[in-house]
Design brief:
Length: about 110
Amino acid sequence: MMPYSPSGLFPSGRPPRPTYREPHPITGAGVAAGAAGTVAWLVLFGLLGRSLAGYAWWTLLAGVLAWLAALVLVRYGDRGAAAGIAIVTSGGWSIAAAAVVTRWVTSGDWPLW
């Protein structure tokens, strides 16, 4: 009788290789929740401004506070929500910057001072 040699297709009794899992996986629902909350946050702060300069400064402050919340979420909470916050905050800052630059180009006067 010939000795049996395993082909490798079937388990040989060795312990399985370790599987590493993300402790806080990113989900689409988390990203959407973070994005929706940040949109509401930026809109509420943007409405506090009575002029373009006020809108820009309030949006900048709201974005800084949102990014601080995102940093806390990255470390201790939902990384998907943190990603949604970062994405929407950068978009909100881009809109505010475009509005400031447009006013600056059309009037020739820097609107933030």
